[in-house]
Write a structure and sequence with these properties.
Length: 69
């Protein structure tokens, strides 16, 4: 499985949101947000789009492949 680098935590905290608040906005559990932030779970396209929309950023700002950094 391909690795994915997540900037979700930095962007979420920069937006002043807790994991629970973001989870509520995108209608998932806090645990789901936590596992995405920690690289345990790779989000679906739909969840990635919802997260990006909730944080007012592009999906590419949230997630990148390791060789793109």
């Amino acid at each position: 499985m391909a690795e994915l680098v997540s900037f979700l935590k930095a962007i979420r905290t920069g937006a002043g949101l807790t994991q629970q608040e973001l989870a509520t906005l995108v209608q998932v559990s806090r645990k789901t947000v936590n596992t995405v932030e920690n690289g345990v779970f790779i989000p679906s396209t739909i969840l990635s789009l919802k997260l990006a929309r909730a944080l007012n950023v592009s999906v590419e700002q949230l997630f990148q492949l390791p060789n793109e950094i």
